[in-house]
Write a structure and sequence with these properties.
- By secondary structure, the chain is α/β, with parallel strands linked by helices.
- Helices cover 38% and strands 18% of the residues.
- It folds into two domains: 164 residues, Rossmann fold; 94 residues, Rossmann fold.
- The strands form two sheets. A six-stranded mixed β-sheet has the order 1-2-10-7-8-9. Strands 5-4-3-6 form a four-stranded parallel β-sheet, sandwiched between helices.
- Helix 1 crosses helix 2 and helix 5 packs across helix 6.
- The protein starts with 12 loop residues before the first strand and ends in a 14-residue tail after the last strand.
């Protein structure tokens, strides 16, 4: 009998036909909301905790602290319960109420601060003072390692090796770094496309980091192209995915979809896979679907 953690990964991919502007190109969404914790971050959270335990960096009963915009925190809160770990999550005070309530339902303590950079500073300071252990998803190789071991191989397997373009939102950059490593090893010609918000845009789950806060796991040489996505594009595609394709997801997925369909309109043929990061029910208290 499988435990809940055995259900992390092996998420389905669906072809999107109604929004696709080019019939000679196949566009697939990988539905990461089907993970038990509801997002792609289940993969990284599980690998970071399990690997830290295996190395002896942490043990049951220890306290963890982590800065998160939401999905990693929910995943960590769910998985920490399996390993008897205490957890404090530090999150921007603009996050939706659903996220805070979900983390607290799993038994985590939630601290709300202004701005993601402030949250990261708080968590790192607390770890430096010895009050808790920080996994630090922004600098932890086990973050991208989860996608090298699982997400990338699943995409390669489920497309029969036909994938030509991989598209991902960039937040911690763990997903795009791990998938890039794996897919490029299988076929160096696979194009890796990251998306980030335009200068003025605010898209939860996608960041345009100041230089001082750029994730240390990010290697720009592993991304072939970065697309800027406007807030309006992300909102529009999030709503259209739900209404026209039946894919109910969050705003970062809308941003990735915008990049994927833009790419589809630029190429003559190919197979594009993008990450549908989470589920849309985490945003119902916001104006995203209003």
């Amino acid at each position: 009998m499988a435990s809940l953690l055995d259900l992390v990964g092996n998420t389905p991919m669906v072809e999107l036909r109604k929004l696709n502007p080019n019939p000679q190109v196949k566009v697939f969404a990988k539905l990461e909301g089907n993970n038990p914790g509801g997002s792609v971050k289940d993969r990284a959270a599980l690998n970071m905790i399990a690997s830290a335990l295996e190395r002896g960096a942490i043990k049951p009963g220890d306290k963890l602290v982590e800065a998160t915009s939401g999905n990693t925190g929910i995943a960590l809160a769910m998985i920490a319960r399996f390993y008897d770990l205490e957890l404090e999550l530090v999150m921007p005070d603009t996050s939706t109420r659903e996220r805070t309530l979900t983390m607290e339902a799993f038994g985590a303590r939630v601290t709300l601060l202004t701005g993601m950079e402030t949250c990261r500073d708080y968590a790192e300071a607390k770890a430096a003072e010895g009050e808790a252990f920080i996994l630090n998803q922004f600098a932890n190789d086990d973050n991208w390692g989860a996608h090298y071991k699982t997400t990338g191989p699943e995409i390669w397997r489920d497309t029969g090796g036909a994938v030509t373009h991989f598209v991902s939102a960039m937040g911690t950059t763990g997903t795009i770094m791990g998938c890039s490593r794996f897919l490029k090893e299988q076929n160096p010609d696979v194009q890796i496309i990251g998306c980030q918000p335009t200068e003025e845009a605010s898209i939860p789950g996608i960041r345009r980091w100041p230089e001082a806060y750029l994730p240390r796991i990010f290697d720009p040489g592993r991304v072939d192209r970065v697309m800027d996505i406007t807030e309006a594009e992300a909102v529009s595609y999030t709503r259209r995915l739900a209404k026209e394709e039946g894919v109910f997801a969050g705003m970062s997925t809308g941003g990735a979809a915008a990049a994927a369909f833009r790419m589809a309109s630029e190429i003559q043929e190919g197979t594009i896979v993008f990450i549908a990061c989470d589920r849309g029910d985490r945003y119902l208290s916001s104006t995203l679907f209003g």
